[in-house]
Design brief:
By secondary structure, the protein is α/β, with parallel strands linked by helices. The chain folds into two domains: about 5-120 and about 195-260, Rossmann fold (3-Layer(aba) Sandwich), CATH 3.40.50; about 125-185, no CATH class. Helix content is about 45%, strand content about 15%. The chain has eleven helices and eight strands. The protein has helices at about 40-45, 70-80, 95-105, 125-140, 145-155, 160-165, 170-175, 180-190, 195-200, 215-230, 245-260, and strands at about 5, 10-20, 25, 50-55, 85-90, 110-115, 205-210, 230-235. It has an eight-stranded mixed β-sheet with strand order 1-2-4-3-5-6-7-8, with helices on both faces. α1 crosses α11 (about 245-260) and α4 runs antiparallel to α5. It starts with a strand and ends with a helix.
């Protein structure tokens, strides 16, 4: 990351800006850094100034205890101020939930686009998320980082044999290094259910997108986000999964963000 910004509590935030035009800040999800969204930033850079950043506790950014979701909203406030004072937001997965929280908090945000925020709209979802929070908290308290990562991967639906193979892969050490931030994403998701009151309070346009090849409940969750936001719209990207391809998503986001920049 080329640039550094200081958040309100003194935490250093690493970020990188690509392209020129209206600013769009991209918010990554769990177990990700800003680099994860670099391909999407590049795909948007012909029309927008796309900003990726390392959320606190990851990559080149610092961290300051104690954690609170409000600190991550303050991080976005500091970042938006540093890159021009106003921005549109895009967030994927739990990063989408954070972007929605930031918009609801009153930050200078023009629009918000989210891809598959994983709200638990399926039967037994609330109980599953509560159990995950309990087990994750215990694993991190005992510094069992590998177990924490495994809990998260199980929550995403990965098969046990796939997780067992991942534990032997070179990437596992990197995943363990940012495992404590799983608690941050868990906090951002709240009780895991669709935040109806929060969504109803968002006054800017909201675009919720889901992949046609993703689990049905992810499309339902995105649809509910669009329905509950007063200025919400929904799009399905046929053939796409949770690992959405930047070149497929970028034109949809560009159309949405261009409309907001022109108004």
């Amino acid at each position: 990351m080329d640039n550094k910004t200081i958040s309100r509590d003194g935490t250093l935030l690493a970020h990188h800006r690509t392209g020129q035009g209206p600013v769009v800040v991209l918010v990554s999800g769990a177990m990700s850094t800003g680099a994860t969204l670099a391909p999407l930033a590049a795909a948007l850079s012909d029309r927008f100034a796309a900003v990726v950043y390392d959320r606190r506790g990851r990559g080149g950014s610092g961290d300051t205890a104690p954690y609170a979701v409000e600190r991550e909203v303050e991080d976005l406030a500091a970042l938006i101020e540093a890159v021009g004072g106003e921005a549109a937001l895009y967030g994927i997965s739990s990063g989408g939930a954070l972007a929605l929280r930031a918009a609801a908090s009153g930050l200078p945000v023009r629009q918000v686009a989210v891809y598959e925020p994983p709200f638990a709209v399926y039967e037994g979802g609330a109980e599953e998320r509560a159990a995950y929070t309990r087990d994750l908290t215990a694993a991190l308290a005992e510094d069992r980082r590998g177990d924490a990562v495994e809990l998260f991967l199980r929550l995403t639906g990965l098969a046990p044999e796939v997780i067992a193979n991942a534990r032997q892969a070179p990437m596992w050490a990197g995943m363990e290094s940012i495992a404590p931030t799983l608690a941050y994403d868990d906090a951002v998701m709240g009780d895991g259910l669709v935040p109806r009151d929060l969504l109803a309070s968002i006054r800017v346009p909201v675009l919720a997108v889901a992949g046609g090849a993703s689990a049905g409940w992810m499309r339902v969750a995105a649809q509910q986000v669009a329905q509950l936001a007063p200025r919400g719209t929904y799009r399905t990207l046929e053939g796409q999964s949770h690992a959405v391809e930047a070149e497929v998503l970028a034109p949809v986001l560009a159309e949405f963000f261009a409309a907001g920049a022109a108004s």
